[in-house]
Amino acid sequence: MNRLVRPLGSMGFAVISFAVIIGMWTAFVKGLGLNPYFAKTPSAVWQWISSAPGASQHRSMLTAALVVTLRDAALGFVFGTGAALVACSVFVLYRSLETSLLPVAIALRSVPLVAMTPLLVLVFGRGLLGVA
């Protein structure tokens, strides 16, 4: 019995969280009177992908975009992890390099990514390298 309580509690929490997010989304769109052309309710999104005219094309479009997003995210994760492993290995092997570069790394970490995005786009471009 105890083995079931924890997973069921976790699933219940997930269901409640999902319901709260959907409720807040709907309340936000309807409560602020947002233009339906720009802000869709969850039911409108569900209708668009399930029963609207061209729903199969909409699902195909979303699936294609999901594949691109997952590819870009996976590449960014793999290369970012690799770069972090190289950087930490270099820092461990060369303490003088760590002493001189760690303050710069800490300063860069304190800058929000949103503020650094224009600089990253200038350096890496808008292609796959810049996204990853």
Summary keywords:
extended; mainly alpha; single chain; 6 helices; about 130 residues
Structure, explained:
The protein is an all-alpha fold and 132 residues long. 83% of the residues lie in helices and 0% in strands. It has six helices and no strands. The protein has helices at residues 2-31, 42-50, 55-93, 95-109, 113-124, 128-131. α2 packs across α3 and α3 (55-93) packs antiparallel against α4. The longest helix is centred in the middle third of the chain and has 39 residues, at 55-93. The model has no long low-confidence stretch (mean pLDDT 90).
Structural class determined from secondary elements: mainly alpha
Secondary-structure element string: HHHHHH
Largest sheet: none
Overall 3D shape: extended
Uncertain regions: pLDDT < 50 for 5+ in a row?
Answer: none
Calculate Rg over CA atoms.
22 Å
Percent range of helical residues = over 70%
Please give the count of helices: 6
Distance between the termini: 46 Å
Strands, count = 0
Approximately what portion of the residues adopt beta-strand conformation?
Answer: under 5%
Query: What is the typical, i.e. mean, pLDDT?
Result: 90
Précis, in short:
The chain has 132 residues and is mainly alpha-helical. The protein is built from 6 helices and no strands. α2 (42-50) packs across α3 and α3 runs antiparallel to α4 (95-109).
List the helices and strands and how they pair.
Layout: H1 2-31, H2 42-50, H3 55-93, H4 95-109, H5 113-124, H6 128-131
